[in-house]
User: Which sequence fits this backbone?
């Protein structure tokens, strides 16, 4: 092989190695500092303002307080402005390492989360999957929290919050 071709190959190889090193030190496009769901933020290609609300499920008046079901939470949000395929919502209890992810159609803007523990604080993150297999996604710009109510019983010991 002649000398100019060797130099060209070495320069191309050095450029590829340099590019790979540069990619490895680039910060994630999303800051996961202080987040519980670090992997969802580190893997995201961007964020969106979900304006997620965590509400009581089937609210009722008990002892002058509005209380929802003790094992459900209702979530409502705003859709991402970017076109996406479907959503994933992850709910976690950091105290017990419980975590579950549910999915739904792209045009849905609410989900009732069931089979939760009473009087428990949960963290909730919403992702908008940009394609069917969800290799790339947008993530809610923040983790949202919500607490299930305690179980209330009336004087006859009838469970009011199924």
Assistant:
């Amino acid at each position: 092989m002649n000398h100019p071709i060797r130099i060209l190959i070495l320069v191309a190889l050095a450029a590829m190695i340099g590019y790979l090193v540069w990619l490895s030190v680039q910060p994630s496009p999303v800051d996961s500092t202080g987040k519980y769901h670090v992997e969802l933020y580190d893997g995201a290609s961007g964020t969106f303002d979900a304006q997620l609300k965590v509400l009581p499920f089937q609210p009722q008046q008990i002892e002058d307080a509005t209380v929802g079901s003790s094992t459900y939470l209702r979530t409502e949000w705003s859709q991402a402005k970017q076109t996406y395929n479907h959503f994933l919502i992850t709910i976690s209890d950091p105290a017990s390492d419980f975590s579950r992810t549910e999915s739904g159609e792209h045009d849905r803007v609410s989900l009732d989360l069931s089979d939760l523990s009473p009087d428990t604080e949960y963290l909730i993150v919403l992702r908008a999957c940009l394609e069917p297999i969800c290799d790339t996604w947008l993530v809610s710009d923040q983790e949202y929290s919500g607490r299930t109510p305690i179980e209330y019983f009336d004087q006859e010991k009838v469970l009011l919050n199924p």
Q: What stands out?
A: The chain has two helices and eleven strands.
